[in-house]
TrEMBL record:
Signal peptide: none annotated. This is 2-isopropylmalate synthase. Keywords: Acyltransferase, Amino-acid biosynthesis, Branched-chain amino acid biosynthesis, Cytoplasm, Leucine biosynthesis, Manganese, Metal-binding, Transferase. Catalyzes the condensation of the acetyl group of acetyl-CoA with 3-methyl-2-oxobutanoate (2-ketoisovalerate) to form 3-carboxy-3-hydroxy-4-methylpentanoate (2-isopropylmalate). Its EC number is 2.3.3.13. Mn(2+) binds at D23, H211, H213, N247. It catalyses: 3-methyl-2-oxobutanoate + acetyl-CoA + H2O = (2S)-2-isopropylmalate + CoA + H(+). The lineage of its organism: Bacteria, Pseudomonadati, Planctomycetota, Planctomycetia, Pirellulales. Pathway: Amino-acid biosynthesis; L-leucine biosynthesis; L-leucine from 3-methyl-2-oxobutanoate: step 1/4. Belongs to the alpha-IPM synthase/homocitrate synthase family. LeuA type 1 subfamily. Residues 14-276 form the Pyruvate carboxyltransferase domain. The gene is leuA_1. The chain holds residues 1 to 395 of 517 of the full protein. Its cofactor is Mn(2+). GO terms for cellular component: cytoplasm. Homodimer.
Length: 395
């Protein structure tokens, strides 16, 4: 496995594994019906994700049906279904997935001491045995098998290495390292991925994946640290939806990798111009709104209100923007006119609205605009037009 700790000059490809339809749908209130799931899956293909985790087939008849339908009809990405390390789960997942040209079975089993003791009531030997049995059963029917030691970020390092090695020997082709409860930090997670690369003898037989939750707001940072340490796949969701505080946000991690490709030296297959339409589709389908200041896809992500920023933007957009809005699917930068705005932005808007103001006219309109902006949260083009017309007609 080529490890990319900033020293390599080669560009590595990072697979984007989207789990909006599985972990994302586990957000309270985010459930989707079959047609909605098909629409989202189709959009994920247009976006260029490598893997679509379409659901957890044993979880419900609806989940089974959705995974089967997506496997049979959606083309252009690997279709994945989740299963516990249990025969009935794996068989049900395969039943749903077998119509896909590129199916993947994703088996998981918790490995941390807390989960072993309280949830599973199993010893370490029993965990290894069950992981091997699960991966083997999946690998008997499907060439592409992903194994996740659930709560890997809190699992004892020696035991994690033992389970990962056993899973690869049993046939896992991707090893996913989940930070199930969003507990880790970037430095710690980087060290964990590096430890697996350094200590697991057969690690080069599998792609390392990272799957981070956002309980401490670090899912994207932790995923990036995993990539920096050598992970070749990132698991994420559109708008970062998912259990509790959610998962790593696809649009944020993809744009961080792209904007800072000088640092990470990786690329993805994502057609970034589809990010905003994808965000809007998932938001309207799930009913989960996107906060205004959300990075990349929020309404304010490319909106500038302060006069100094607007003046800089009008002179040279890179003064205050590190991404071109059109590169993520926005029409253009939004110079919002409000109480912090300056003359330059007002003059620019007046020009766009078809008015050529003299310096004197601009000064009067600017003063009236500031007085209005103190009273109103947002100033619309209609307000500006009215102020200008008032000035021109001598009122
Ligand atoms: O967060 C988690 O551990 C998961 C696993 C099923 C991969 O979602
Ligand atoms: Zn998860």
């Amino acid at each position: 496995m080529p490890v990319n700790d900033n020293e390599s000059t080669e560009t590595r490809h990072i697979k984007i594994f989207d789990t909006t339809l599985r972990d994302g749908e586990q957000s309270p209130g985010a459930s989707m019906n079959l047609n909605e799931k098909l629409e989202v899956a189709q959009m994920l293909v247009e976006l260029g994700v490598d893997v679509i985790e379409a659901g957890f087939p044993i979880a419900s008849p609806g989940d089974f049906e959705a995974v089967r339908e997506i496997a049979q009809t959606v083309r252009g990405a690997t279709i994945c279904g989740l299963a516990r390390c249990a025969e009935k789960d794996i068989d049900r997942a395969w039943e749903a997935l077998k119509g896909a040209p590129q199916p993947r079975i994703h088996v998981f089993l918790a490995t941390s001491a807390i989960h072993r003791q309280f949830k599973l009531k199993m010893t370490t030997d029993e965990i290894v045995e069950r992981a091997i049995a699960g991966v083997t059963r999946a690998a008997n029917v499907c060439d592409d098998v992903e194994f996740s030691p659930e709560d890997a970020a809190r699992t004892e390092p020696d035991f994690l290495c033992r389970v990962v090695e056993a899973a690869i020997t049993a046939g896992a082709t991707t090893i996913n390292i989940p930070d199930t409860v969003g507990y880790t930090t970037p430095t710690e997670f980087h060290a964990r991925i590096k430890m697996l690369i350094d200590r697991v003898p057969n690690i080069d037989k599998a792609v390392i994946s990272v799957h981070c939750h956002d309980d401490l707001g670090m899912a994207v940072a932790n995923s990036l640290a995993g990539v920096q340490a050598g992970a070749g796949q990132v698991e994420c969701t559109i708008n970062g939806i998912g259990e509790r505080a959610g998962n790593c946000s696809l649009e944020e991690v993809v744009m961080a990798l792209r904007t800072r490709s000088d640092f990470y030296k990786v690329d993805t297959r994502i057609n970034t111009q589809r990010l905003v339409p994808a965000s809007r589709l998932v938001s309207s389908t799930t009913g989960m709104s996107v906060q205004r200041n959300k990075a990349i896809v929020g309404r304010n992500a490319f909106a500038h209100e302060s006069g100094i920023h607007q003046d800089g933007m009008l002179k040279e957009p890179t003064t205050y923007e590190i991404i071109r809005p059109e590169d993520v699917g926005f029409a253009k930068t939004d110079l919002v006119l409000g109480k912090h705005s300056g003359r330059a932005a007002l003059a620019d808007r007046a020009r766009q609205l078809g008015f050529q103001l003299t310096g004197e006219q601009l000064q009067v309109v600017f003063e009236r605009f500031k007085a209005l902006a103190d009273k109103k949260k947002e100033i619309y083009d209609g307000d500006i037009t009215a102020l200008i017309q008032q000035q021109i007609s001598g009122n």
